[in-house]
Each structure stands twice: as C-alpha cells, then as structure tokens.
Amino acid sequence: MGLLSHLLFPWGLLLQGFAIIHFIRRRPDIYWIYIILFLGPLGALIYIFVEAVPDIGLLRQSFKVFPRRKRISELETIVRDNPSSGNYEELGDLYVDDGRLQLARAAFDNAIAARADTLDPFYRRGVCALQLGDAAGALPDLERVVSKEPDHDFYRSADCFPTPTRRRDKEKKLRHSSGR
Questions:
Q1: Which phi and psi (to 5°) does residue 159 adopt?
Q2: DSSP secondary-structure letter at 50?
Q3: Which of 19, 31, 58, 123 lies at a CB distance of 3.0 to 4.6 Å from 145, suitable for a disulfide?
Q4: Helix, strand, coil content of the chain in percent (nearest 5)
Q5: From the CA atom positions of the chain, what is the Rg in Å?
Q6: Would you say the C-alpha torsion 69, 70, 73, 78 has a positive or negative sign?
Q7: How far apart, in Å, are the Cα atoms of 18 and each of 22, 37, 46, 98, 125?
C-alpha cells in the first residue's frame, strides 16, 4: 500500500493544481474550491469531470479557420444571387477576420453602394483603409461616422486615433525627457 500511495502522490497534487487553476480562471460556484481542497485528488477529479470537461467544447471556437473560409465561399456565392448590403457587410467582416483587407474594403464599398444609410460599413471601410496605410482614404469615412455618432465603436477605437490631450501629453513627455 505504501508503494502505491507513493506513486499516486505527485499526480494527486498535479490534479488538484490543475483544478484550482481552472477554478480561478472560470470562477464557478464557490463550493467547488472546498470540494477540491477538502476531498483532495478525488474532489479535484470530480470537479474536472463536472466543470472542466464541458469547457473543452469551448475550444472549438478558437479553431474556426476552415468554417470561416467555408462561410466566405458561401457568401461569395450568395452575393452573386442576392447582392444585398447585409451580405456584403458580413462578407467584409469575414475578410477582415481572415486578413484580406483589400477584399474587405471592396466588400464594404459594395455594401455602401447598396445602402448608404448605416454607419458601420463606413466605419469598417475606414478602419480597413487605415490598416492598409491609406489614411487619406480613411478620413472621409471616419469623419462621417464621428460627425453622426461620436461614440460609435468607441471602446475598440479609443486607442487607434490620437486625441489632442493625448498628443499634448506625448509632447510634454518628449520635452521632459529631452531636457527642454
């Protein structure tokens, strides 16, 4: 019996460590930490089967490269039959996710040509233009979006565009560091 417990000892601690790390990251009900700590490796094993194993299904979302490309090809076919603005917007979003910015910009151009009353295609076309290095092409789109809705997609774009305050702070830091 002593030999068997000696062989299982480090694996039980590793199992408890894994369960505690998963608990800290996922934050399930608090009673699970008591089960992990007081029941030892058995409690950790119970926690893993009840809480951690179902989370494996969430990993599928990170490996969705091929379904995205499949959806792109489906949308390209759909756009030939039904060239609606929504289809072009979705196609543009998928192109951006896939890193094909020229095609995304063209898709947003088509979405704007089909229906120019929503701000999102203008914003996304401007962001594509910025990422492609065409700041002059991005400016009219982004100005249009900001003039109609100043906080459109604010949280994602807050760090992309310099504000006068941020510019002044950078200048102060630069002057201070150069000793002027």
A1: -90, -10
A2: I
A3: 123
A4: 85, 0, 15
A5: 26
A6: negative
A7: 6, 12, 12, 34, 44
Torsion angle of C-alpha atoms 77, 82, 84, 88, degrees rounded to 10: 0
| Rounded Cα–Cα distance for residues 89 and 111 (Å) | 6
Q: Which class would CATH give 65-169?
A: mainly alpha
Residue recorded with tokens 């809480």 = 51
Does residue 164 carry a pLDDT above 80? no
- What mean pLDDT is reported for the chain? 81
- Phi and psi of 134, rounded to 5°? -105, 75
CA-CA distance, 45 to 49, in Å (whole number)?
Answer: 6
Distance between CA atoms of residues 122 and 140, nearest Å: 9
